[in-house]
Design goal:
There is one protein chain. This protein has about 110 residues and is mainly α. The chain is built from 6 helices and no strands. Helix 1 packs antiparallel against helix 2. The chain starts with a helix and ends with a helix.
């Protein structure tokens, strides 16, 4: 998500004049679509990894308890995906962070002058 947002900000952001926040939103959209596209693959790999599959009857699937666990599982999956999506932040060195901050300050100053 971060890489997609940064790429969108650098390429489309400068070409179309969109804000960094708009680029971040587009990066989030790319990330969400990728998550939806890979959801089935992840589920199949977890089933293969655990060596078993839960088989619930339709009546069991409709219980409030089953719905709660599905909700908890989806929330945990989204949280894990977001945490994994932040890995580029750990790769930034202090010099790169300083450069990014300086560039942001320069851009802000230019916008205020306009």
């Amino acid at each position: 998500m971060l890489c997609a947002g940064e790429y969108i900000d650098v390429t489309l952001g400068s070409a179309l004049g969109i804000s960094t926040l708009a680029a971040a939103a587009m990066g989030n959209l790319v990330s969400d679509v990728a998550g939806i596209g890979t959801a089935g693959t992840v589920e199949q790999n977890v089933k293969w990894l655990l060596g078993r599959s839960t088989v619930l009857t339709p009546k069991q699937r409709d219980t409030p308890r089953a719905h709660r666990w599905v909700f908890v599982g989806r929330c945990l999956s989204i949280c894990l995906g977001c945490i994994l999506g932040m890995w580029p932040l750990f790769l930034l060195s202090k010099e790169e962070e300083t450069t990014i901050e300086e560039t942001t300050k320069e851009d802000t100053t230019k916008e205020e002058e306009s």
